[in-house]
Each structure stands twice: as C-alpha cells, then as structure tokens.
Amino acid sequence: MNSVRNSDGSAITVRRLAGRIGAEIQGVTLSGSLPGPQVAAIRQALLAHRVVFFRDQAEFDDAAQEGFSRLLGDLVPHPTEKVLEGSLGILELDAAAGNGKADQWHTDVTFIDAYPRYSVLRAVRIPEYGGDTVWASTVAGYQDLSPQLKTLVEGLWAVHTNKYDYAAQHAHGTQAEREHYEKVFASNIYETEHPVVRIHPETQEKSLVLGQFFQRFVGQTHADSAALFRLLQDHVTRLENTVRWSWRKNDVAIWDNQATQHYALNDYGNQDRTMRRTTIGGEVPVSVDGRHSRMLRQPN
To answer: For residue range 76-123, what is the model confidence (pLDDT) as tens digits?
Structure first.
C-alpha cells in the first residue's frame, strides 16, 4: 500500500495501530469515484489489518458512502432494520432512537447464512466523551487456541439467531431500546447453523464464528454450550487481540466482518451518538471439512 499514490503525487500510507488488528489509512479522500488502485489498496489493508480507519472525511456524505461501498461489492440491507429514508442501503444507528447501542461483542448479522463481508461506518454525531468502539480479531482468537482445542472446535457447529433474551444481554437497556428490539430487530426471526470455524474466502485463514447472536452448539447441552462459548469468546476478545478507536465527527471505519467482532462502548450516558452504516454482501461460510452454513428459520 505504501507504493500507491494519489493523482497529485501525494502518498497513501498505513499506520498500524495495534499488534494483531487495526490500522489508520492516511492520504485518502473517500468517495464513490475513488480510483481502482486506491480501492485495491484499501482491500489489501483490510485483509492485513481486519479494520481500517480514516480521519476527517468531511465530504463523505450519504451519497458518497453508498457510492464508495459499491466499489467494495454489492450493498445489502439489514434483514430487519429499515434503511434511512431516501437511501438504498444506509442504516442509521441512533442511540436516542433505541438502535444505536451495540454494547455486546458481535459480528454483524450472523443470524443469516451469507452475513456481510464488509461494514462501512461513518460518524455523524459524536458525544463529548465516551462512545469508542473496539474491534477484535476472530482469526487471532482461533490462532491462540491449543492444538487440542483447535481440533475440537473445527468439528463444532452452532446456531445463531436474532431472537435472544434481551434482558439478560442488556440489563441496563432503556424502554425505547427494549421496544425497538422487540418491534423491529426481532420482528422477524432468523436462525442459521454456522461452523464454529470458518475458512476466510480470500486469505484462507481460519476464524471463530461466535458473538452475540450465538445461541447454542449443535448437539451440546445448554450448560456445556454456555461454558464452551465463554472459553472461546474470551480467546477472541483478550486485549492483545483488540484495537480501540476514539471517534471524531466525520471519521470512517471499514472492517472485515468475516474476521472480526466489535463492541460499541455504552459509556456516554444520554448524549447523542449517531452513526451511519452500509454493509457489503458476503459469502456463505465454509467449514474446515467443506460444508456450508444453512438457514434453519427465516420469514416466509
């Protein structure tokens, strides 16, 4: 990426932020007309660093975000949430509206089979303090396992769903947040069976498919599922496998949703925090032995 230059001759650089995940890309003005070499360079940085960040993208409005996202692949809407009025694929995450506090570790939309490849997130309104987001590498989480645990999890499958115990996961959720979950997010129920270890379609790396929408391991009791889930999830989210971003207005983050989990810190009280997200379509995960994820339940 360091060899890529803008039309005016200025360099595009990548500044690594942590040892296992995360980099800031400098010297790029994101838009729907970004030249092919720059798009390719961003893709390469995503594969290497899992999540990349861009500061001060003041001209990156809704139209530019949609246009740029299409350069990465096909825009896909959220299965249950409505897109922003007038847009084709922008989801507004507004804390005041009850859908902006994603304060659980998760990979986006794993309750469907072909969950998104990439997510593009833009900061519209940022609180005076708090509201950082943390990403974790699910590839590093797998790599940290002992050989015996790797053998175990490579043969496991798990059910993911958008219907879960909201009170248990969001003990401090507001009434507006509870109502949004029940009336919108879980209005249509999905269940999908994923391999616990998937093969990344581009790098061929192995990564763990876990996070908030996990329900149970196939063939295991509830107690055993809960204990094993916590063991594996802790490997993903150990601090050495994470990077934390402190947002400023007009910042943009892009992450490989096939190789990460993320968590939005809910530490800003009643302040406003509004983000806009687009997602790019992904592939149905493939297990170590070549089997594909499958939908168990979806709306008619």
So the answer is: 999 988 888 878 889 999 988 767 678 899 999 999 999 999 999 999
> Is the four-CA dihedral 218, 220, 226, 230 of positive or negative sign?
negative
- Give the strand order in the sheet containing 260-264: 242-245, 133-137, 260-264
Domains of the chain in start order, with CATH, are: 13-297 (3.60.130.10)
CB burial of 153-184 (b: ≥16 within 10 Å; e: otherwise) equals bbebbbbbbbbbeeeeebeebeeebeebbeeb
Q: Annotated catalytic sites, by residue?
A: 106, 108, 262, 277
Structure tokens at 79: 């299965």
> pTM, whole model, 2 decimals?
0.93
Q: Which parts of 211-266 are beta strand (E)?
A: 214-217, 242-245, 252-256, 260-264
Q: What is the mean pLDDT of residues 232-257?
A: 98
